[in-house]
Amino acid sequence: MVGKKKEIDHKWVKNNNGSIAIVFSHKKKPYKFAPVRGGDFNNDQDRAIANQVAGQIELDIKLGKFSGLDPWLPKQADKIGIGDPNPYTINDAWRDYKISKADKISL
Q1: Cα atoms found within 13 Å of the Cα of residue 2, Cβ hemisphere only
Q2: Tens digits of per-residue pLDDT, 96-106?
Q3: 53, 11 contact by CB (below 8 A)
Q4: What is the pTM of this model?
Q5: 8 Å CB contact between 61 and 55
Q6: Given phi > 0 = left and psi -120 to 50 = alpha, else beta, which region is 18?
Q7: Count of CA atoms in the C-beta half-sphere (13 A) of 11
Q8: Among 75, 21, 82, 29, which Cα is nearest to 47's?
Q9: Helix axes 44-62, 90-100, angle to 10 degrees
């Protein structure tokens, strides 16, 4: 299944030579970034996080709250190897995904 887009992927989540990128445009400005540092497109957890981030950004745009990528970029602590004591897990992503889709799907 290498390189194939799975059904659950958000339309902005793209395979970027094996890594994950979120690619979209807003007000004629293109955006492209990696939501998961070192994320692997074939890793279900990494893609679930990317899908959740893409969905939140899309919601922010629809609500008129999008002001740029700063809230979505990996934090400085990630760059220097300081781990989050409470990492975002696949269960967190699934919970957030269900909440964001509650009006569209039956749980």
Answers
A1: 2
A2: 777 777 676 55
A3: no
A4: 0.62
A5: no
A6: left
A7: 3
A8: 21
A9: 30
